[in-house]
Amino acid sequence: MTEEKKIKGNFPNLRFPEFTEEWKWYELRDVIHMFSGGTPPMQSPDYWNGNIPLISAISMHNTYISSSTQYITDIGLEKGSRLLQKENLLLLVRGSMLWNRIPICYNLIDVAFNQDVKGIVVGNKSTSLFVLYWFQSKETFLKSLVTGTGIGAGKLDSETIFSLQIALPNKIEQSKIAKFLSLLDQRIETQNKIIEKYESLIKGIIDYIFRNKKKNVKLKDCLICHSSTLTESEVLANEGMYPVYGASGIFAHFSQHHVNGDSILIIKDGSNVGKLQYASDKYSVIGTLNYLMAKNGVCLKYIYYCMQSLSFEKYRVGSGIPHIYFKDYGKELIHCPEFTEQERIAKVLSTIDYKIIIEKNILGKFYKQKSYLLQNLFI
Fold first, then answer.
1. What pLDDT, in 10s, does the model give residues 295-331?
2. Which one, of 83, 80, 95, lies nearest residue 48 by Cα?
3. H/E/C letters for each residue in 153-195?
4. Whole-prediction pTM value?
């Protein structure tokens, strides 16, 4: 316990009003039991494609786990892995993901887990859900404890984890905190499903409109392709008011703009070639993107949605860094109706797109709310 904690008192910044007792400090080794998993030999088909989920880093993107990308058989479990009964915890302790986040999950069903994951069973001093959210509240600190493996991955040492200090209230207060945060997680999960439904809706409409209609125009007859030579170092050295688009959207602001008006941004170099964005107003783009502007008589937003139905995979060239070129994919035939029809279709799809943006903003606020609560409901 630090001197600061002694002065402040052993209780968090936010608290349910009916609780007044100070929290008690323990080493984490006195609160949890932690053990390792494993992976059955891949060359043994009898060990795989069974009914037991095998949890690895790729399955640990959500707080609550009920499925996996890999499954093993009972024999596979016996020969190479370990079973964690439901309503316990899984902590990733090795992998490149640790440099960005510390995955800690609650298993809703019995699961096996591989050697990069630790199974955690909580003793009688606490509960699985309270410890789960305690780990989430300490994520920034835990990331500072990650060390390298020598091959680019990160690792969390078991002894370091066991020696961490955890403050615990009584079981009733623990339960109330955990229930409160689990309800918020349920709302976040619901919000994600709402977004997935809208994204599925717009994809279905795009597929119906653009893949089942007669293709009568080449893409290059609708668009003018422009290039950029702007580098990331130039942008960061000259900060300003104009947004700069990169592979994942706006990543900085620049002192001047190179584009004024609507354009379709397409990644032309790198692993995400063909990824599309839509930009408006005054802005710049990084050199790994092209910006495509409309020719006369073309509704650019319509073409943007039309391009989402295209596959750019066949236009990829380059053995190292992949590239696509407008001279190649510009020959793609698309369905292009009269301008008024283009506008009508674009308006419908834009309405759904706007709804998705609103729902994602709501989701972002839920995440901010959870982050605030995690920082203030625990010591």
1. 999 999 999 999 999 999 999 998 789 999 999 999 9
2. 80
3. CEECCHHHHHCCEEEECCHHHHHHHHHHHHHHHHHHHHHHHHH
4. 0.84
